[in-house]
Amino acid sequence: MAGNFNVRIKPSEFQKIRKAFDRVVRRTQDKVVKTAVRETMKPVLSEARARAPLGENGMLKKATKLKVTGYRRNGFVVGIVGVSRISKEINGVKVQPSKYAHLVEYGTKAHGPKVKKIMSNGRMVFGKRVRGTQARPFLRPTFDGNKGNMERNVRYKIGRGIERIAQGV
To answer: Do the beta carbons of residue 30 and residue 77 sit within 8 Å?
Structure first.
């Protein structure tokens, strides 16, 4: 014979339980979406590194990284492939690729002093005109080439993550 039973929970206790469930759902949701974005962006990172010019020291290629960030207020999750702020000392000079990555990506115009003679440290220094450098884009073409695939892959991987959670895997 099956018996009936009742559970009484105070409204204040019920609110605590509800908030705890909400936190679990939010954390699970964040984890699924962040994982989907990270997995989708990994091939983009690989392609960006492959396209990055090697340069004199290879730091630009090494400094190209992936960062996945979630914004709790609006629920956005963003995957960023870009050049990080890492630095390394090479031959006594601090090299930080994030300081020159935009110059490589977009190139530079010819530049130099407006007047032939300039003063520096109290003595005369003669400036000279410097040729510009040609743009060698590596981030924008990578993004443009993968844009459609990224949207499709994120949707698919979020769906797979939800299925896994529903199955208890």
So the answer is: yes
Domain boundaries, the chain: 11-164
Query: In whole angstroms, what is the distance from residue 4 CA to residue 70 CA?
Result: 45
What are 6-48's pLDDT values in tens digits? 667 777 777 777 777 777 777 777 888 899 999 999 999 999 9
What whole-number distance in Å separates Cα of residue 66 and Cα of residue 73?
A: 22
What is each CA distance from 130 to 66, 137, 157, in whole angstroms? 34, 21, 49
SS3 state of residue 14: helix
Q: Are 110 and 89 in contact (CB under 8 A)?
A: no
pTM attached to this predicted model: 0.73
Residue keyed to tokens 């999750």: 77
DSSP 100: T
Exposed, middle or buried: residue 44 (CB in 10 Å: 0-12, 13-18, 19+)? buried
Tokens 């983009």 sit on residue:
44
How far is the C-alpha of 35 from the C-alpha of 28, rounded, in Å? 11
For the chain, the residue count is: 169
The counts of H helices and E strands in the chain are 4, 6
